[in-house]
Amino acid sequence: MYRKFFKRGFDIVFSFLGIVVLSVPMLLIMIVIKCDSEGPVIFKTERVGKNGKPFKFYKFRSMRTDAPKDLPTRLMKSDEYITNAGKFLRKTSLDELPQLFCILKGDMSIIGPRPVVDTETELLEYREQTGAMSVRPGLTGLAQISGRDKLIDMKLKAELDGEYAKKITFGKDFKIFFKTIAVVLKGSDIVEGDAVMKEGEAEQDQVQEVAATQDEKNDALPTEASQTGEE
Q1: Which long-range contacts (CB under 8 A, 24 or more apart) does 218-222 make?
Q2: 109: which residues sit within 8 A by CB, 6+ positions away?
Q3: DSSP 3-state of 152
Q4: Hey, which of 69-73, 161-165, 179-183, 223-227 has the most confident mean pLDDT?
Q5: Ramachandran sector of residue 85 (left: φ over 0; alpha: ψ -120 to 50; beta: rest)
Q6: Which residues have CB under 8 Å from 104's CB, separation 6+?
Q7: N or C: which end of the chain has fewer CB within 10 A?
Q8: In this predicted model, which residue has the larger pLDDT, 229 or 32?
Q9: What pLDDT does 130 receive?
Q10: Residue 147 has what pLDDT?
């Protein structure tokens, strides 16, 4: 009942209130961005929405205008493109505030899988399999409180998105919303650009090293045959 009758109503009310309450801070952010670097204050791009339908997606611009537009942030050397104001905006997630307008329009929800560009084919395919594409993308979601930038396993991310989509309740949305606030305030799991991939590779290398060491130890142990004198 919540999913069918009340969720959209909450999205409209809270996105509208958010726009009203945060209008002055958003105006100040726009001024800072304009003074900090050349280019528009709002970054506009196209993202994949509910049932694969594309929609216009808005963020405060945190990168230079020559930054790649359709490349997932985790695959680019974003530290080369992020502006001075952008570093603060991204760290505090204030760059996401213009998405309140996407929510009010009906393209997004407050809680749901994060919208991605259509070049994220692997994640989109997994989301299709898990049923995550059946709901509106969100300002925050289950995956964002379960690892955020460090969650680089696309299948796991899609499974979390699908888990949310299968059973949407007010209690779950309430929990995700307030846990998101805690994560943002702590600045947890924020890794910029391709650094997250390097971190993941480093962790994988460590796992492989530990496994290799264990194999060496196992090889060095006497076998049952050698212990009994059998061949």
Answers
A1: none
A2: 7, 8, 11, 103, 135, 136, 137, 138, 139
A3: coil
A4: 161-165
A5: alpha
A6: 11, 12, 15, 16, 19
A7: C
A8: 32
A9: 96
A10: 74
Whole-model pTM? 0.78
Q: Torsion angle, CA of 173/176/179/183, rounded to 10 degrees?
A: -140
In angstroms, the CA 53 to CA 48 distance is 6
Residue 128, classified by CB atoms within 10 Å of its CB into exposed (0-12), middle (13-18) or buried (19+), is: middle
Output the six-digit token pair for 168: 């949407």
State the amino acid at position 65 in one-letter form. T
Kindly give the pairing relationship between strand 54-60 and strand 109-111.
unpaired
Considering the chain, what percentage of its residues have pLDDT values greater than 70?
A: 75
Q: Which of 59-63, 136-140, 159-163, 187-191 has the lowest mean pLDDT?
A: 187-191
How many residues in the chain? Answer: 231
Among 100, 88, 71, 141, which Cα is nearest to 12's?
A: 100
Q: What does the block give as tokens for 129?
A: 């399999």
